[in-house]
């Protein structure tokens, strides 16, 4: 079996690389870097051109990224939430990607392929944020070229050692395939356990939209906190009336506006209310035991047909909060 795999790698190397990279960029959890390293080794031995290998890798990756860019541009943040639900990474991936885009701008695309979990999410996020397609393609191509060159270059640089390893693998026969499959399963299991730990840490009581609406109608409005980032709010402009805007990183600025006996409702637009749960848990740990995430976030509020403001979020740093206004202690 090992002999057959090596024969296929030599005979159909460029096609295998193209399909491997394309399917990985479209979302399948396929290991790509090992394929590129082995292909670099084969190219160094003259089985095919290094430049052809690099071109095929860039083309496949760019096709996948442009597809996700178009999906993100058409469907907005909904596709981001879907990706994070399907991902083995923690559900805060939307917020993490948004933070990187806000901090680094288009340069995020250059380093995205080197950051686990960012590679797949950055393309639809770029589309959702309406980044120019030409700029996206240019910076994404630079990032892909750097990433592909590093992996292929490793195969070229270390190919004498890799040839020795390949010979040993051929001697091992089917055992090598079993070991590789075991390592892949172990990797997927590790990522799954990491996600479970994250979800377990964020497990806490939620408030649903009907309960929040009842509190508001009964004249007992809680402090409502919008923990979405500015980039997300710029494309998803509807907010719950009277909500306070606070970044997850600046959450302590919220403290002066709170009272321990007041209901606090935190919402976001991320899978499993991840960012809202993180902030609510921090507040609970600080003694604000009535802090809860809004189940379903802003999307559930809108779907229920409740009133919204358009960019009506109050910035915490500029807010004058009073109990009568329903925003403070």
How would you characterize this protein structure?
The chain has 15 helices and seven strands. The protein has 329 residues and is mainly alpha-helical. The chain folds into two domains: 2-201, no CATH class; 209-318, Rhodanese-like domain (Oxidized Rhodanese, domain 1, 3-Layer(aba) Sandwich). The strands form two sheets. The chain has a five-stranded parallel β-sheet with strand order 5-4-1-3-7, with helices on one face. It has a two-stranded antiparallel sheet with strand order 2-6. Helix 14 links the parallel strand 4 and strand 5. Residues 1-5 and 318-329 have low confidence and may be disordered.
Specify the biggest β-sheet.
Answer: 5 strands, parallel
Give the neighbour order of strands across the main sheet: 5-4-1-3-7
Order of helices and strands: HHHHHHHHHHHHEHEEEHEHEE
**Span between termini:** 70 Å
Approximate strand percentage: 5-15%
Helix percentage range: 55-70%
Q: What shape does the CA trace take?
A: elongated
Q: Could you report the average pLDDT, rounded to the nearest whole number? A: 78
Count up the domains. 2
Count of helical regions: 15
Count of distinct strands:
7
The low-confidence parts are 1-5, 318-329
Structural class: mainly alpha
């Amino acid at each position: 079996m090992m002999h057959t795999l090596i024969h296929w790698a030599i005979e159909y190397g460029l096609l295998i690389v193209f399909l491997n990279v394309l399917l990985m960029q479209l979302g399948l959890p396929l290991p790509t870097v090992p394929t590129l390293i082995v292909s670099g080794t084969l190219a160094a031995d003259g089985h095919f051109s290094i430049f052809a290998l690099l071109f095929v890798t860039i083309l496949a990756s760019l096709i996948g990224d442009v597809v996700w860019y178009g999906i993100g541009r058409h469907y907005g943040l909904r596709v981001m939430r879907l990706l994070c639900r399907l991902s083995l990474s923690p559900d805060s991936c939307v917020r993490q990607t948004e933070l990187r885009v806000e901090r680094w701008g288009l340069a995020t695309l250059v380093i995205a392929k080197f950051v686990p979990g960012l590679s797949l999410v950055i393309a639809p996020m770029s589309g959702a944020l309406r980044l120019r397609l030409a700029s996206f393609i240019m910076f994404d191509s630079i990032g892909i070229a750097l990433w592909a060159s590093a992996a292929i270059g490793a195969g070229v640089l270390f190919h004498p050692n890799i040839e020795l390893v390949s010979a040993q693998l051929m001697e091992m026969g089917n055992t090598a395939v079993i070991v590789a499959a075991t390592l892949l399963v172990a990797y997927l299991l590790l990522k799954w356990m990491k996600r479970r730990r994250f979800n377990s840490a964020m497990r806490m009581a939620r408030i649903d939209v009907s309960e929040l609406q009842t509190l508001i109608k009964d004249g007992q409005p809680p402090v409502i906190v919008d923990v979405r980032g500015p980039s997300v709010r710029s494309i998803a402009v509807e907010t719950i009336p009277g909500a306070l805007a606070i970044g997850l990183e600046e959450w302590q600025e919220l403290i002066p506006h709170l009272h321990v006996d007041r209901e606090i409702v935190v919402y976001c637009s991320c899978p499993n209310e991840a960012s809202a749960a993180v902030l609510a848990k921090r507040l609970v740990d600080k003694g604000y035991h009535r802090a809860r995430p809004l189940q379903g976030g802003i999307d559930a509020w809108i779907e229920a047909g409740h009133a919204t403001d358009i960019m009506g979020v109050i910035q915490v740093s500029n807010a004058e909060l009073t109990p009568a206004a329903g925003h403070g202690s």
